[in-house]
Write a structure and sequence with these properties.
single chain; mainly alpha; 72% helix; Glycerol uptake facilitator protein; 8 helices
């Protein structure tokens, strides 16, 4: 039963994360009258808020990954098995796609779409690697030194990432896939997806290596 709860938590958390990211992007653009900066601000606040809630409430159940890059990081630290990692990732992707469909349904849009939002270029790939590095680094640092602040650390690093990275900090392969199926403010063209996914996984792996050095589980003499 404990494992079933963890798996459902990963699916449900991913669904709500994706639904909020995409849904808030749709509404923010509508209410901003086309002002992209104002729309991004609304999108940012909603995303940061739901991340805090999801990590705080579901973290004790599943670890609140909601993100294949985070799951990879915990696998590299040998804190999650291969079978569980693969199931987590499948549920994260499914949950994020379900969240995109839910957001589209709430705003009476076609349920599945193909994004035309151009996010191409090496600068945006670098930004995605950097954003994912920052996320994973923040998670392990908070677990080590401020475990009660993990929800805030996750929410704040993504909130900041919306504004200091060229890609607006997707930092999550599952939600990147979902956003490729949403031709909205939060979308990304499928053609740009391979670069995003590669950069995100590389960023997560590099952050895990740095965290292993800076935040060891046990200090050695």
């Amino acid at each position: 039963m404990k494992q079933a709860r963890a798996l459902f938590a990963e699916f449900l958390g991913s669904l709500f994360l994706s639904g909020v990211v995409i849904g808030s992007g749709i509404l923010a653009l509508e209410l901003s009258g086309g002002n992209i900066a104002v729309a991004l601000l609304g999108n940012t606040v909603a995303t940061g808020a739901i991340l805090w809630v999801l990590v705080a409430t579901l973290g004790p159940i599943s670890g609140a990954h909601f993100n294949p890059a985070v799951t990879l990081a915990f696998f590299l630290r040998r804190e999650i098995s291969v079978p569980t990692s693969l199931i987590y990732i499948a549920l994260q992707v499914a949950g994020c796609i379900a969240g995109a469909i839910l957001a589209h349904a709430m705003f009476e849009l076609p349920l599945l779409q193909i994004s035309e939002t151009d996010r191409s270029g090496t600068a945006k790939m670098l930004a995605e690697g950097t954003a994912t590095f920052a996320l994973v680094f923040a998670i392990f640092g908070a677990i080590k030194h401020a475990p009660n602040a993990v929800p805030a650390a996750v929410a704040l690093v993504i909130t900041a990432g919306y504004w200091w990275t060229a890609s607006t900090s997707f930092a999550n392969p599952a939600i990147s896939i979902a956003r490729a199926l949403s031709d909205t403010f939060a979308g990304v063209r499928p053609a740009d997806l391979p670069g995003f996914l590669s950069a995100q996984f590389i960023g997560a792996a590099l952050a895990t290596g740095c965290a292993y050095f800076l935040f060891p589980k046990e200090e050695s003499s």
